[in-house]
Each structure stands twice: as structure tokens, then as C-alpha cells.
Amino acid sequence: MNRGSSVFVLALLAALGIGLSYVAQYNSAPRIAAEQRLIDSDKLLDLLPRDSYDNLPLEQPLSLDDTALGTSTLQGGWRATRTGQATAVLLRSQTRGYAASIELLIAIDLNGRLLGVKTLEQTETPGLGARIAEWPNAWLSLFSGKSLVEPDDKGWALKKDQGQFDQIAGATITSRAVINATHDALRYFDTHRQSLLEGPSHE
Questions:
Q1: Using CB atoms within 10 A of its CB, is residue 125 exposed (0-12), middle (13-18) or buried (19+)?
Q2: Cα–Cα distance between 52 and 136 in angstroms, integer?
Q3: Class of residue 56 by CB neighbours under 10 A (exposed 0-12, middle 13-18, buried 19+)
Q4: CA gap 10, 22 in Å, rounded
């Protein structure tokens, strides 16, 4: 085989390899996307009791992008329904912690009670504020069952600020930020309850 033929064969094999790689990637993309959606779904929906909804909440986002609240900003939200009736909303909140932004997921049932709070992203001090990223989280579980009126506005603060909540040891600023952002979310839910539970979502 002469040099020209060898180059041609190598080029052909290279093109064939690239083509096969493209086809494999193209065919696997939907599966990878589906697996990623499942991972995201598990991460975002584990605050909701599984028997409390029968829709696909992540496919029904609420129009909340960059809604500024008192000490936080809502980055988005989703509605959970069962037999067509709303059962809960999930609110994605961003607040300022000690080191940088903290992103929280806050689940509220239709009666305005917290189903749970979870940290999605944070860069707080390791061993101190960063403990809010642990899951399950004993400190964040203290918020479950609380509402806008239980405790009242004054109660939504650290004990050192005359409120009802303990802080994460050595992480006053982080603890205060999470409490305030959660309180913000409850106030927002109370003010916009009808639109959150019954209004249109972007499907």
C-alpha cells in the first residue's frame, strides 16, 4: 500500500470513529438527561412526603425568578399537586451567609406549615456554618412543622436575639441568615397563597 493510500485509509478510519462517537453520544444524550432529571428530582423532592403528590412538580415551575424579599431572594419554585389539587410548594431561596450566598429549598404545605428546609448550595466555614449542608440535618429539621404564626414574628430569631431558635454552634451569622430566609419564604407564601397554590405555572 502506497503512502497516499495509507493516509486515505487513516483519514477514513478517523472520520468513521468520529461519526460513531457522535452517533453514540447523540443516542445516549436523552438517557443521560433523563438520569440527571431523576437525580435533580430526588434532590429537590425529598422534602415532600411521597404520597402527598402525584404530579411532576419540577415540570410545573412557578414564576418567581429573582423575587426580592426582606433578607433573601426567591430564585424559583414548584407546585406539588394530588388529583389536581395543590398540596405544597417548593421555594428556592438565596440569602447571604457568613462567607457567600446560601441557597435553600423550602417546602411549605397548603396550610402554610413548613414541611422542611434543605441546603442546596453553600460555601460556609468548614466544621461550622458548612454543617447546614449535611443531609439529613438535625438543625434544619427544627423548622419542620413551624409556620408564620407558630412561632410569631418575634419568635423567628435566634435565642440570643430573643427568638425561639438555637444556633449552629460557632455559626451565628449562618444560622441567622437561614432563619431569616425561611421566615421570608413563609411571609411570601402567606401573602401570595392563592397564586402559589392555584395560579398558572410554566409547564
A1: middle
A2: 20
A3: middle
A4: 18
Cell 449535611, residue located: 134
**How far is residue 77 from each of residues 62, 138, 174, measured CA to CA in Å?**
5, 24, 23
Chain mean position to CA 27: 29
Label residue 23 by pLDDT band (50, 70, 90). low
- 193 touches 112 (CB < 8 A): yes
Closest CA to 165 of 177, 156, 173: 156
Whole-angstrom Cα distance, residue 172 to residue 128? 9
Mean pLDDT value across residues 134-154: 96
3-state secondary structure of 68: strand
